[in-house]
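Entry 14. Ran structure prediction on the chain below.
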Amino acid sequence: MSKKVVILGSGIAGTIVANQIARKIPGELKSGAVSLTMVGNTETHVYQPGWLYIPFDLVRPEELKRSQRSLLDPLVRFVVDPVSQIDVKGQKLVAESKTEYPYDVLIIATGSVPRPDLIPGLPEAGHWFYTEEGAIKLREALRSFQGGKIVVAMGVPHKCPVAPLEVTLMLEDYLRKKGVREKSEVMYTYPVGALHTIPAVAQWAGPVFEERGIKSETFFNMKEVDKEKKILHSLEGSAVPFDLLISIPPHRGSKVVLDSGLGEGGWIPTNKQTLLMEGSENVFVVGDTTNLPVSKAGSTAHFSADILVENAISVLHGEKPAHVYDGKVYCFIETGRNQATYITFNYTTPPSPPPPTSAVHWLKLSYNRLYWLTARGIL
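Output, C-alpha cells:
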C-alpha cells in the first residue's frame, strides 16, 4: 500500500522540503510506493523578504511573485485547498472543501502572519511592510512625506529579527536622498532594554544610530494608538507623538494551527534537534510554525528544512530520525547607503556582525534574484 507524505503549507519551508524529498526518493514516487502531496492556500509563491524594498521604491511587487506550481518538482502533487483542521490522532487533514488528506508522514509549514489588529488603533493609524498591501501603502506615504516625526515601533513576536533595524536605517538613508532628512526626526523604539535582543547586534547598532542622528527609546511595548491625536502609547506608560508610524506588527501562527489546538499563539512545540512535533513520531514542523528558540527567518526555514528532509525520509522507511538541527541562522542586515552587514549564529554560538560593506549589500541583492533557486531546493 502506498505511503503518503503530506506537506501543509506552500511557503519557502514547505517548498524546499517538497523539492528535496522529490529529488531524494524519485524511484519510490515514480513507482507509486510513496505519494508526495503539498496542500496550500494560494497558487502564488511570494518572496516575502522582498516586501521591505517596496516602500523605498527599490523593487516592484510583481518581481517578488512566481507560480507555486512552477517552483515544484513534477513529482510533487500540488493542490490549493485551504485546510481547516489538522487531525493528528486521525492522521489526516480536513479541508474547508470537506476533502480529507490522510498521511503517514505530515510536515507542517504553515508559517506566521502579521497581526496589526492585536494593537488597538494600529490598523487605522500605522503602516507596515509585511504584506503587499501594507508595503504599497507605506510606499505611498513615504513618497508624499515632506518632513516630520517618524516612529518605528515593534510588536512581539515578529519574523526576521533584524527587520526593525533594517527599515530604520534604510528609512534614514531614503529621507537623506529625498532631501528631507533635516526636516525629519527618526525615532526607533524596542521592547527590551537594548536596541536589539541580540547583545552583539545592539552594541553594533548604538554607534550607527548616534552617527546618523536616530533617536531611540527602549523598554517600549506597543499598547495602543490614538489615531485622532497620532500618539503611540506603550505598556510602560510612555506616549510618543508621530507624523508617520511604521510598525513591525506582532505575529501569530496560522489559524489552522490555532483552531486545531496544536500550540499557543499558533506556535507548535517542536523538538529543536529532530524537528518532530513534541509527542509525535510522524509529524514534523518547519519554518515559522515551530516554537524553536531561534529567529523566525527564511534562513532558519532553509537550514532546518535540510535536516527535516533526512529525518522525514528515515521515518517513512521505518527508521528513527538521526539528523540534528543545530539552530543555524544567517541574516543579512541592510543598513542603507548601499551597504549591508550580516549575522550568523546557532543554538550555542552568538552572532557578531562585521562592519557594513557595499559587497555584502550587493550580495544581498543578488540573493534576492537567486531566491527562486533556493525555493526549488537547488541553492
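The chain has a mean pLDDT of 95. Will compare against last week's run tomorrow.
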